[in-house]
């Protein structure tokens, strides 16, 4: 059944109003699905502008892209990103020690891995949600939650109070909604890596357009994607957290250059050519939480199961969450039932990927000469062994028309 606006009829749980806290990936995507159900939805984002500091870039895997396709956004997102042909792994001397080829993704999975600036993705999703009549408010920081009969109330730092039938925490690894709703939940764990990144024009860098090069440096890990138009998108991982958090960005640049002084020279060229360093971000994850919901509040995305970037699945899992949770809400008789179904369906998949991401991140740690020699020779085998898990993650499909779990 649809109403006069072409929206799907109300969910069985009789939810009419929803508050979505977080304007990143999960929040606007959830808002889009809720609007499909005819739910009046308000997205609350603490940042004062959609152009705030939201990170560098990320990969959208085929399983995440299928969610965007369900929403009719695949083309709009593709126009802002670039297809990733594959990943080449190199040692500190620049020798290729392994390759992951993505060029058959369309045939195998229906979509090809895509790289996109995080800010561009957030903006596209917010614009789409607003275009489908979701209210999107910036500078709206939630400081307190309260439940009253039949509704949940969010108080903003401005003093304003907003009420709805349900509230969703899509506000990331440091979720305020999680702290307010599940105060005994385990704190996110530091993975041991700190991330810095940037965008540069460095024509002398020996990078093939559309390919990502991952370098196991002697003292730190470096990744670079050759985007169309000659721009290099890059990130640097290492455990020198104090050095990376120096207040002077030029101190951070000097630290990165020092850490890569014995690695392939093009890395230093890229770092020097970068006008503005982005970050730093200490990378955290959440291996597991006892529960993802309480009362009329439910968490999703990184707020429920934060994963480090080392599996390339964080954004795609958030997109999947939004579809599954909306589907469960559509088919359940009460919000709490929908939340329980959602958690039961998603927990096993997402926690397995969080564990794999932690394992991948551990492999980025600097290795001594003997360990590096072993890694260089064994990496092709490790990549083949990991190919099955990656294929399972990429091939995962969630049908909107199917009944909720």
TrEMBL record:
Domain FAD-binding as annotated: residue spans: 18-357
Keyword line: Monooxygenase, Oxidoreductase
Name of a matching Pfam family: FAD_binding_3
Gene3D superfamilies noted in UniProt: FAD/NAD(P)-binding domain
GO MF annotations, alphabetized: monooxygenase activity
PANTHER family per the UniProt record, alphabetical: MONOOXYGENASE, PUTATIVE (AFU_ORTHOLOGUE AFUA_6G14510)-RELATED
Protein's name according to its UniProt entry: FAD-dependent monooxygenase
Taxonomic source organism: Nannocystis pusilla
